[in-house]
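Revision sheet: structure tokens.
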Amino acid sequence: MRKVEENAKTPAEIEDRVWELSEKIDFCMLTTWDGESQHSRPMSARVNRAERAVHFLVDVEGRKNRHIEKYPRVGLTFSDTAGNKYVALSGNATISNDRAKIKELWSDFDRAWWDDETDPSIRLLTVHPEDAELWDSPNRLVASAKMLTAAVTGAKPSFGDHGEVKL
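Predicted:
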């Protein structure tokens, strides 16, 4: 883990904040590799720190499934632009037909794609993050004030915590 700020968080604090923000932000960009280029798409994440996993319900026909089967290393990027908070995770993904887990994760939100949790075309995509990077800054108003102060005083502003951690 690398500390950037003098009063940066410890690796354990960074890990806690990574899991907290990932769960709070919910939607992330899932990035896969097809052997020639990266492909990103927004996904609703089901973050489970106890399992050290991020789950997604996906369709059996998804192009991302073929990417993951051949190239399981993926990236997840969570972004709260209004709060200036960002989390980037990387790890290996798997696709399964774990019907019990699909049922456990099912929500009414999923009805936008499937009738119910018994739909045979639903698959479980699970990512086990291995690395994380965190940018945890003050909101835009505070950041703007710090930049203005720095411009006037010539001092370098502190924009919060940044760090990397192995999960």
